[in-house]
Every structure is written in C-alpha cells, then in structure tokens.
Amino acid sequence: MNFEEVYERLFNKVFAYIRSRVRAAEQAEDIAARTWQKVWDKQQQFDARRGLPEQWIFTIARNEVNKQYRWYALKRLFSMKEEIIPDAKTPLEALSLQERQTYLYYALQKLPQREQDLLSLKFYSGLNNRQIARLVGISESNVGTIVNRALQKLRAVLEEL
What are the backbone dihedrals phi and psi of residue 70, each rounded to the nearest 5 degrees, phi first? Predict the structure, then answer.
C-alpha cells in the first residue's frame, strides 16, 4: 500500500465521514489526525487479501469515532462541557448553521448505527453504493435499500423535531 497515494485519494472522503459523525469541527480534525496516524503506523499490517485499503481505513476511522463517543460519555459523566464552533462568517449565519447541524445531528442519532454509517459514507464521504458495498461487505442493492429506508426514517424524525 502506497501511503501517500491512498492519503491523497481518500483524505477528503474519510474526513467527510468523520465530520458527519461528530458535531465539532475541531473534534473531527483530531479524529482524522489520529486515524491517519494509525494508518501510517500500521501500514505494514495492512493485508490486501483481507480487503481494500478503503475498508481498512474507514474501519480505523469508525473505531476512532466510536472511541471519541466513549470518551465524550465519560466527559459528560464528570460534567464537562463541549464547545461547538460552527463554520460561519457572521453570527447570524453561525446560529443558522448550528441550528441545522444540531437538528440533523440529533435526527441521525435516532437511527441505528449501521444506518448512520451508510448515510455518512454516502452523503458526507461521497461514496457510491458500489464503493460502500465493498467497504462494508454487503451487496450493492442492499446498500441502496438500507440508505433509502434510512432516509425515510430520517425525514420522519426531522418532521417530529
């Protein structure tokens, strides 16, 4: 595996996936940095017979996101507060962006983990159904079905909010 080539090809998709799973941009940047550091450190352990580099890297990213959630749960337990700084140019734009992100974030959290992952890979990382199918080990048509049903659920949850 050529790290530089894989990094150039996948960085934006991996970051988009991570960013879709966490609310704060700074957290996403930290998780992405940890993900790529692990890829660099463990690149000799990658086995092409077990799957594509994309599968391996997105699995590392998913594990890092989950580790962040576990850490965040402990942090909340001890009453620490998370800061959210949206990417905006004006305070009004920041408020609007934060509100939309918050609604979408909470709506996504109501979906099962598998559906959250597939939606994030599809809409935030820009992967197509075939790429997602190879990545998660299910059929392309199954990806389409799950994504479609998840979108229907997401719309229903957003209407309730």
Answer: -65, -40
Over the stretch 4-56, which tens digit does the pLDDT of each residue have?
999 999 999 999 999 999 888 899 999 999 999 999 999 999 999 988 999 99
Nearest to 135 by CA among 45, 54, 39: 54
Interatomic CA distance for residues 51 and 6, integer angstroms? 14
Mean pLDDT of 118-143: 90
| CA 73 to chain CA mean position, Å | 18
Domains of the chain: 1-85 (1.10.1740.10), 89-161 (1.10.10.10)
> How many CB atoms are closer than 10 A to CB 112?
11
Nearest to 56 by CA among 72, 70, 74, 36: 36
Q: What is the pLDDT of residues 72-117, one digit of tens each?
A: 654 453 333 344 444 556 777 766 767 777 788 888 888 999 999 8
Cβ–Cβ under 8 Å, residues 133 and 139: yes
End-to-end CA distance of the chain: 45
The two three-digit tokens of residue 52, written as one number: 């594509």
